[in-house]
Amino acid sequence: MRRLNPSLVAGGVIVGVIALMALLSFVWTPYDATLVNPSGRLAMPSWEHWFGTDKFGRDVFSQIMVGSRTTLFVGVVAVGVAAVIGVPLGVLAAMTPRWPSELIMRTNDLMLAFPALLLAIMFGAVFGASTLTAMVAIGIASVPSFARVIRSGALQVMRTEYVLAARAAGRKPFPIAARHVLPNVTSLITVQASVSFAIAVLAEAALSFLGYGTPPPTPSWGRMLQESQEFLFSAPRLAVFPGIAIAVAVLGFNLLGDGLRDRFDPKLEDRR
Amino acid sequence: MLVFGFMAVLPGDPARVALGVNASDEAVAELRRQFGLDRPLPTQYVDWLGGLLRGDLGTSYVSKAAIGPQVFDRLQVTLLLVVAGMLIALVLAVPAGTVMAARHRRLSGVALSALSQVGVAVPAFLAGILLIMVFAVKLGWLPANGWTPPAVDPVQFLRQLVLPALSLGLVQGAVLTRYVRSAVLDVLREDYLRTARAKGLRPFPALWRHGLRNAAVPVVTVLGLQLATLLIGAVVVERVFVIPGLGSLLLDGVSQRDLILVQDVVMVLVVAVLLVNFLVDLLYVALDPRLRTGSR
């Protein structure tokens, strides 16, 4: 039996717990995460409020639970956008003749020089701060890395004998891509999705922190962190809980990505 | 073109924003004419690009001040922060990554590896907030925010630089550590290092004399990519520590809808990223003579 991969297990457990918390928040949270309670503001952690309350008297634990929904939602859509555009682009670059392929990849390289956060800030300025804007911007910024990784995998598949045989048998490029190339780069897509998810979580948190992400009153870990800044001297715990949530989520997706990579390419395992 | 295109579709009239909602249509039209906003977009683009190439970044729609000197002043602040952050990252990553590789099967190596994995997961702005909580709020050793130019008060400058530089450097150091570990592990498996050990050299001297230059090649590539990340990370860290750098200028420009200012700052940041990548390519060739012949 194959040995359990510690990164995969740890990452899977963390991501699983966050996903469960997000799902649970649809049916149950200790309090309404957006309920303002002026008489109970800045309460210390207690049995009533496990993580205390914020400046508006809102329950911090409930906000963290609902915030996990925002985080996962942004990640899923951003990675979806990146995969839907990046995967076909990578396969196309691997299957087309030299100059169109070069054109795609050089344009891709140019986009790589465009940092995700910068693109997202510009999107925020153009279309206004919203979760949708953040998701799409982060997704578009992740397209180049998807395209690059998938192209390298697809190039390897294109050199295999079964693809050469399919080409010799007169199969058209599209059926070759659908039947031979895509199924063989699925592992790469999975690994890249996990890595991009971690980047999306970080970018969403940074954007919300700057005020260009999820607008109030929808709870978001990044904005909770930003709102905690004015209470660093009087209630520093307000920064600790969303901070830990962000770091644990990113850690989970990073570990999952590492674990998946090791599983699909065991030769790499010893190098991590 | 990408930067200009995004800014061109920005909703709202920059002239109207600059003059306020109560401004008359005539005044808005006059300002649009003054800034050349009434001309076709291709003409505006060519003018803007020509100005950039001549070093003329134009005039702010809001403050009416020349943008070039502002960007230059702010860029110096950001570069100081980024360089300090990168130095901290290097000082942390090279020894830690080497130890992690040399002892990758021992407890100390595994513990350091786990620690670096946690470090990678912490965003720089979160590290900044945590550092403020410990060193400014709890211990009161360092100021929580602010910026003093080094020429005005060097001591205060250093005191104010420590926490923001640490927040950038610690996180990037954690990322870099993993690459150093991977590169050193690769080198440790090479035949020339085995030969050096067989000659009687102890592990660390052998690695120092024969391995580090080879391990430096992939690390330099990552270093370049990280410099770009640091430059963008500084945008958020400047907000945490209220530092008047390029990031603050960009965010001010976005909130005031100062279109030309945003365009210029984004352009400067993207050019800086491209420039760093180009310099890394040059350094890559300098470090690895095999690349000069074009053979692999």
Automatic annotation (TrEMBL), chain A:
Give the CC-aspect GO terms: plasma membrane
Domain ABC transmembrane type-1, residue spans? 68-257
What keywords sit in the KW lines?
Cell membrane, Membrane, Transmembrane, Transmembrane helix, Transport
User: Which superkingdom, per the lineage?
Assistant: Bacteria
The answer to whether UniProt assigns keyword Cell membrane to this entry is yes
Its topology with respect to the membrane? Answer: Multi-pass membrane protein
InterPro entries reported for this sequence: BP-dependent_transpt_permease, MetI-like, MetI-like_sf
Q: Where are the transmembrane segments?
A: 7-28, 72-95, 107-126, 132-150, 188-211, 231-257
Where's it found, cell-wise? Cell membrane
Q: Which SUPFAM superfamilies match?
A: MetI-like
Q: Which GO terms describe its biological process?
A: transmembrane transport
Per its UniProt record, what PANTHER family does this chain match?
A: OLIGOPEPTIDE TRANSPORT SYSTEM PERMEASE PROTEIN APPC, PEPTIDE ABC TRANSPORTER PERMEASE PROTEIN
To which protein family does this belong? Belongs to the binding-protein-dependent transport system permease family.
Task: Indicate what this protein is called per its UniProt record.
Answer: ABC transporter permease
